[in-house]
């Protein structure tokens, strides 16, 4: 496992020209994809502003996901997928996405409650939301076995790309993998061919041994910060021995839900209020050494004049620039896992 990094020094003179200053920049290379990321101390995300979210906390008479309107305003699944029209588990409800980003696209609300702060995402709410998504994937697979690529995703609040504040997840289910899923599968297959084992199992072993970014285990899930992050405050998890989302057991879903809930509580304590999450799956029905793995990161806090954390580097060069070393994040998050 190659954790390659290079330190660079950027030099400039003070405004009056009397002093030369050096600022350190570190470039890191992802051990699987080879993509690079930059740790630059001056790149700060705005913190949450007290009261900035108050306008979202009250009832919204136009929200289509709230009780009384969900049944009237959201579409129903085809009868071949779910005769009842929507899939329910606990407080979670899943229905088709009116703006489909995949052949079979669905939205799953976490609760009828219009507002959830990050600490309100309880393990039970997250587990139920994952459960309805997995039920949807199983139902689609029963009628269309050619659909093999799936993922579970969350955009929370406007800075993360969320179109509605009512908390919800999105299911991606398609004949075609996303670019990231394809690259992960291809690179994972090359690693397995070269080393005779799953990259993700080797990653967990290496990170736990190094103990720099490893946060902890919950059941069969292993939690760590990313060596070469895709974004701010990035946390990753790997589910041992599970190749696809449909391989997950109820205990493993519960372990993922508990870990996600702990990370979200840490995000809130760190002054963050918006996040993205993706749970990647290998191709359904495959056995190529992929492991179900999760990535979550914070986005800019919502404020009257917030700035996006995505600039030319992220959008056009596919390279993140973040402010804190993953090792520092892991040390802080480790305390949250130990005391939760």
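Q: What amino acid sequence fits the structure above?
A:
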């Amino acid at each position: 496992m190659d954790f390659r990094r290079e330190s660079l020094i950027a030099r400039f003179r003070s405004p009056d020209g009397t002093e030369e200053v050096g600022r350190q920049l570190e470039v890191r290379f992802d051990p699987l994809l080879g993509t690079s990321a930059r740790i630059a101390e001056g790149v700060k995300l705005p913190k949450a502003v007290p009261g900035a979210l108050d306008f979202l906390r009250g009832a919204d008479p136009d929200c289509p996901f709230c009780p009384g309107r969900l049944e009237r305003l959201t579409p129903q699944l085809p009868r071949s997928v779910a005769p009842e029209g929507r899939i329910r588990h606990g407080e979670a409800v899943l229905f088709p996405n009116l703006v489909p980003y995949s052949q079979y696209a669905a939205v799953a609300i976490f609760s009828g409650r219009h507002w959830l702060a990050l600490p309100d995402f309880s393990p039970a709410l997250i587990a139920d939301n994952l459960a309805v998504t997995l039920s949807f994937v199983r139902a689609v697979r029963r009628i269309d076995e050619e659909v093999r690529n799936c993922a579970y995703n969350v955009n929370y609040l406007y800075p993360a790309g969320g179109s509605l504040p009512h908390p919800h997840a999105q299911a991606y289910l398609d004949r075609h993998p996303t670019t990231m899923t394809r690259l992960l599968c291809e690179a994972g297959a090359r690693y397995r061919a070269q080393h005779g084992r799953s990259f993700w199992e080797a990653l967990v072993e290496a990170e736990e041994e190094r103990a720099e970014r490893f946060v902890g285990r919950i059941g069969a899930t292993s939690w760590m910060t990313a060596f070469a992050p895709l974004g701010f405050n990035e946390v990753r998890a790997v589910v041992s021995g599970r190749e696809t989302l449909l391989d997950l057991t109820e205990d493993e879903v519960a372990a993922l839900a508990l870990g996600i809930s702990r990370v979200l509580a840490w995000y809130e304590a760190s002054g963050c209020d918006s996040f993205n999450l993706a749970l990647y799956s290998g191709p359904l029905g495959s056995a190529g050494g992929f492991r179900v793995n999760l990535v979550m990161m914070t986005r800019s806090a919502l404020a009257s004049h917030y700035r996006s954390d995505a600039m030319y580097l992220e959008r056009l060069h596919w390279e993140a620039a973040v402010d804190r070393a993953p090792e520092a994040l892991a040390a802080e998050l480790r305390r949250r896992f130990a005391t939760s």
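Q: And what stands out in the fold?
A: The radius of gyration is 21 Å.
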